[in-house]
Amino acid sequence: QVQLVESGGGLVQAGGALRLSCVASGRTFSSYHMGWFRQVPGKEREFVAAISWSGRETDYADSVKGRFTIDRDNAENKVSLQMNTLKPEDTAVYYCAADWMYGSIWPEYSWVNYDAWGQGTQVTVSS
User: Fold this and answer.
1) C-beta separation of 48 from 42 below 8 A
2) What pLDDT score does 91 carry?
3) Do 102 and 32 meet the contact criterion of CB atoms below 8 Å apart?
4) Which own/partner pairs from 59-66 qualify as long-range (CB within 8 Å, at least 24 positions apart)?
5) CA-CA distances (angstroms) from residue 32 to 40, 50, 125?
6) 3-state class of 84 per DSSP?
7) What percent of the chain stands above pLDDT 90?
8) What is the Cα–Cα distance from 78 to 97, expressed in whole angstroms?
């Protein structure tokens, strides 16, 4: 099993930018597709972005397309989410997640099918 630790959240004004990072340890990082999800109180965890094990394929929720970019560095066991032009509705706890590539589908939008999660990092966008 892989262990994930996120960092980079914080408070930013609308229109600003943040970069989230997630560092993995344990099992071979390059054997996982990686995803970012977010959650606000009282709502289900929501898909934000995903990147394939190789980094060659990415996918985004419509709400963030054109504003967020996901990338990964398998040599550093890291996946990142660059968030630009942030909006108040982007406010949430953001989670990094790992999906063991063997037997999984691509892209995987459902949070229940991911195998490991980070502890989450709060992103707050003020208007």
Assistant:
1) no
2) 98
3) no
4) 59/107, 63/89, 64/90
5) 26, 11, 30
6) coil
7) 94
8) 12
